[in-house]
Write a structure and sequence with these properties.
The complex is a heterodimer of chains A (about 280) and B (about 325). Chain A is mainly α. Chain A contains eleven helices and one strand. Chain A is about 65% helix and about 0% strand. In chain B, the strands form three sheets. Chain B has a 17-stranded parallel sheet that branches. In chain B, strands 3, 4, 6, 7 and 8 form a five-stranded antiparallel sheet that branches. Chain B has a three-stranded antiparallel sheet with strand order 1-2-5, with no helix packed on it. Classes of the chains: A mainly alpha (about 280), B mainly beta (about 325). Chains A and B meet through strand 1, helix 1, helix 2, helix 4 and helix 6 of A and helix 1, strand 1, strand 4, strand 5 and strand 7 of B.
Chain lengths: ~280, ~325
Amino acid sequence: MGWNPARGRLRIGMSGVAAVVVGAVVYWAFSSGPPVAPEVNLATAPSQGAMNDAHAGHPTQAEIVTTLPGTPAPVDPEESTIAQYTSEKYQFLFDDLRYLNASQVEQLQRALQLRERLSGEMNSAGQNDALARAENQIRELLTAADHATYEMLRESDLELLKLNEYAGGISNVAPLSAADRESILKTKLAYKARFRQLLRDSMLQRSDQSPAEREYAYSMTARALEDFRRSYLEEVRQYLANDEQFALLSNYEATEFRAELAQLQSMVDTTSKGGS
Amino acid sequence: MFSRILCGTALLAFAGMAQATISLSASPGNAQVSLSWSYSNETPVTQEVYRDTDSNPSGRVRIGSVSSSTRSFTATGLSNGTTYYFWIKNTVSGTATNSNTASATPAGSGGGGGGAITGATCSSSGSTSITATIRVTSGTYDGGCRTYNPSGALGDGSQEEGQDPAFRVENGATLRNAILGNNGVDGVHFYNGGNLQNFRWTNVGEDAFTIKSSGTVNVSGVTGVNSEDKFAQVNAESTLNVSNCIVDNAGKFLRQNGGTTFKVTVNVDRCQISNMGEGIFRTDSSSSVARLTNSRLRNSGSLCIGSWASCTGSGNTNY
């Protein structure tokens, strides 16, 4: 993998005296050698690590993913992997960015790659500041509408993984076009955002609720999950021209939503057992 | 340099600083992994659960957000036999702390998977005629519990060699939730590994499934009846993990291709095996290994037939 993330981070929660000691010690420890945490540079967008979970077993993706305009040529396999993952994850953001010139598109691409790399990093010093800088740069480059699209796609890892699973599975039977994929992903993300808000509001995971309150929260959330599934599929139905694509999507999602429901049930069970 | 870091760490500890840690553990189940964690010198606020199929956190996928009071999570919908890696990420005022990496391999033999023997749980939701093999070369093909009826172009489900399979699963892909109709043709073929979940053979044809090339094959939640000869056929060096199966009325549960000497590793766990004309495992290879655990047997013949390097059973009962 070529990258050994730092484990754990020193949390400082003590006196000013200790803070002075910290500064002195850190300076002393690193003053004569290279920094342990790499310097973050938006212009070079370092990257690492394979995006295996989202790509494993999906050879057809290479045909589907388009290289974004202005994407710098990757210089090593790891950088290539993260560049490809970023391209795939945000490909629908680049549908209509004609208000950006080539240089700005390249800046955006680099900021996105950096964001993806940092989000996978483990507790490295400066990570949060660098992430904030990358987020700011992305916000400055995009219109409000496109930034909203970005925020939606930013949370799309799991849905992208599942879309790739489904698309790969039917690739020899009823292959999806890029437009099909975009319709499915965007529709699902939109409905999922609503569901996630409802899940947060439901307080399903709170441990201080009575069994009856928890059961009520679960039943409401389970119903919302079913509404999410039905509404999302009904809307996607309008976009897919091929009946088999839709039938197989319905099959696939029925199984995935059942697993999601089991996950919700396990939250209730765990909480009620005092597992929290 | 490293000695300076170590000395620096000691000094920091002396200065009253405590290292914030999240200790995460993972235990496997059947198609799921249970996670539990605890904190040291850290207050949980925004907790997120991440998953990956390698230990490198880059590219990991967030699979859940849990409340600040939660200390456990069950990751479901996983593939038996695949190792998954997990992290808990806690964010306080924009500063993130990650747990250690915890890994687990759900279900499979020896994977700690328990539970009842149910076999396939599909009830037919309709039927689909197929005139050519369905190839699943990546991702997941979900049949939605439909009954797939192969035409005569694929074969007639007899013991005649050279029939085509109804499904061909390749490169670690997954086929799930399907029923193969009365014409079982040559069942399911695996190339370079794959996964079969919740699958029923109404009437096994030439074989229920065949491993055609090397890889790891995971089969779980399956039911197959009326194999005239073998239920499973292995034609290449491979690992086969079978869990939660019901197999009735066959010559043998598994046969390594006759006369071959490559190594096959077979783990069968939580299966109900009945009415085997000859027995359960058969090979001619002295390098192959087979194990049957936690299973229910009736009129199943010999457990081991042939020259296995190792062939064992434990936790099995007759009923």
